[in-house]
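Recall that a protein's primary structure is simply its ordered list of amino acids. Everything else, from secondary elements to tertiary packing, is in principle encoded there. The following example makes that idea concrete.
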Amino acid sequence: MSNQLPQGPGSGRVVLTTGANSGIGLATAVELARRGFVSVGSVRSDAKGEVLRQEAAEAGVPVDVVVFDVTDADGCERAINEIVARHGSLFGLVNNAGYALSGAVEDVSDADARRILETMVLAPARLARLSLPHLRAGGNGRIINISSVYGRTTSPLSGWYQACKHAMEGLSDALRMEVAADNVQVVLIEPGTFRTSIWEDVERVDAQRDESRYAEAYQRARRALELTAPIMGDPSSCASTIAKALETRMPRARYLVGADAHVLAFTSTFTPTIVKDRVTRLVMGL
């Protein structure tokens, strides 16, 4: 018996991908449409919606666009209701919306910390909660949470971002067991580094921290980012993994994506903490 759910044009499986105007979210929204899903992509503004529509048109696939901010609770509820009213059902939710917040713990304000927690922890949980009645109704729903290899391990200068990913891992593990009896499956995608606009934001913020006591470490991190940029993975490979998790009858609980993700996960598991900390501090100048 095939391990694939039947797919193709008119399959009726509706999937919402948040943060679909760039990077992994954009690649996912387009890839799902190619594979016959009814692909719905969320963006925060009409301008970002036009980016998604243009990419979908160039790929020759239909992608429905909904505009709302994932940090707006009322907006989230309206969007889920709108999608179900428009398409009649909801099969999958891909929680992808987010951004990188770089900075040593000492350099990040309470306001910035609250903002990233709202966007990358509370919002995905809220959307999962709002989607669950519809996912249950179909009998085989999916929640795909885009985490990171940094949901498994930790490095300096991005502690709040990694805290969000660790929180997503814990929430996903709990939710997976809570909804398993309803045949709703929860999957974590753990990418390494991929070519997305998120790294431009990191470089911009780090460049503004020249007065920090960690300035040298920020500079080393920027240089490392510049050196690794040419070998970063393409978001399309992550999109393919997400599509696989939606298509297969029995998805894994976690999918590491990218060679660097596999290496980091392996070394984090088997390297003593004292050794890992010492090497990291030497490399970063801490």
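Residues 14-284 form a domain with the Rossmann fold fold (CATH 3.40.50.720). The chain has ten helices and seven strands.
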